[in-house]
Model the fold of this input.
Amino acid sequence: MKEDVRLRERYFGELEGKSNRNYQRVWDYYRLSSEHNKFGVEPPRSVRKRVLSLIVELENREPDDSQIFLVIHGDTLQILETALQGWRPEYHRALKPLETAEIRKYGRQYTS
Done:
């Protein structure tokens, strides 16, 4: 098992460690654009880029028949999932919410 900082939770800037009610405020802004950093929050496009860099690295390093297991926080995984589904990163909240300890299986197709 190896840790990689690219799988870290999304940084929520000045809202980090505050009430979960603030999440909706952030998500409302990002539905308009995946680029801005309102409240100093890490933009979805940035989250997606850092996680995809790890995915590409793993795919280039591991044999094609490898099974790779990643443990990722929910918001980070849903942003990654937009790449796997061919969606824009700011639409990550439109995906089916993750259950605690849910396992999702994906192939090797994604869009950057």
